[in-house]
Amino acid sequence: MALNKKLSELSDEEVIKNFQETNNLEAYEVLVKRYKDPLMNFVYRFVGDRDACTDIVQDTMIKFYLNKDSYREFAKFSTWIYTIAGNLAKNELKRRKRRNIFSLSQSSDDEWTPQIEDKSFLAPDRAADSEIKNEFIQRALLKVKPVYREVVILRDIQELSYEEIAEITGLSLGTVKSRINRGRNQLQKLLKTIYHG
Amino acid sequence: MEKNFYSEENNRHSELIKDLNKLPKISAPENFEFSLMTRIQNQNFIGTEELKPQFNLVKFFAPSAVVAVVIIMFFLFLPSNDSMFENPLMSEPTIIAEKSKQIIGSASNGAENIKSTKKKNASNKVQLSTSNNYDIVVNRNDAVMKEKAKYPIFSKRSVSLDDYISGDNAKRNNLQEGNVVRASEESPEFDGFFVKQEPDKKTIEKYRAMLDSAKKAQTKADSVKKAKKVE
What we know:
The structure holds two protein chains of two kinds. Chain A is an all-alpha fold. Chain A has helices spanning 2-9, 12-22, 25-47, 50-66, 77-102, 108-117, 124-128, 130-143, 146-157, 162-169, 173-190. Chain B is α+β, with helices and mostly antiparallel strands. Chain B has a domain at 198-231. Helices cover 46% and strands 11% of the residues of chain B. Chain B has a four-stranded antiparallel beta sheet with strand order 2-1-3-4, with no helix packed on it. A two-stranded parallel ribbon of chain B has the order 5-6. In chain B, strand 1 and strand 2 form a beta hairpin. At the A-B interface, helix 3, helix 4, helix 8, helix 9 and helix 11 of A face helix 1, helix 2 and helix 3 of B.
């Protein structure tokens, strides 16, 4: 119990160091507890499917468990784990895309696309409703190109710094900023019924 | 500095950013950790292992097979042009020395003058080659041959109309003909067209009679002069 308390007080980097050195599962669990929710949120906003999101985060944690020694101290643990989760989420999107190409049936995504942009469909009072608004934002988010979507989520939903995003995505700071801006522009265009102008 | 630069962008999307921040946070299911630890304890890592690309024999040989098939098709279905084109590797080589004969000059009245192709001597050569012409031909191996010239004038500088009409001048290529006509620097000046004509016997006899009478008259005149001197 004393050890647990001590581990929870340590920084991410110290905890993973402990896990690397002693193979202590409690240290691993501490990090899982810290990151399961942020990663769930990030992956869900990126993929848009709760079940797939749970699987991706589980796989992320297993990858972390199996490849703990590949983590190097000079990097932040948060950016390392976000990179793993982001890559797995991208793989999932690619798999879905491939499946959609070979599938004869239309994807469900295409069915609701016009609803966002069709002003007559969306009454202003309904748009103001936060739940529906959130739903529309999420759907619009999934319509944004993945390269822009990822950075917008990391910045505006996960509230990470530009430097952290650059480290996660492996992009330069300038590219990150321009992609965030483009992503926001795309999103705003898709949600023009809510944001006038 | 950077913040100020991008704050403008943030202002433009301020509402959107606010709403994105307010989106409900998704949390992991309650049994997340339990199922994760169960997977780890059971070593159930299916799905997380890296998929190594397996060696596929068909994929490996497909590109080379396609190339081979294309080459075979090319040889099988391409129309053969053997009759039109002669394979240069199969044909017998031509003797370059014979082709590159340089006619240096021609001889007249038994004297053989070696002529160069320089313009300077061109006019002399024409005068010398009016009768009993011989072409001195020097081969690459420095062997000097004497060939009787076909025409009374330098062959390279003239065009025989008879041969041209009958087609006997096939040995001369278009370049040579063209050079003769335009009198370029590479070939001597153009002498002009001529017609080969057999001399008329009567005319010859007539001219001979005239010459004989002239000679007789000359001899008579000489004898008269001598007689006067003696007196």
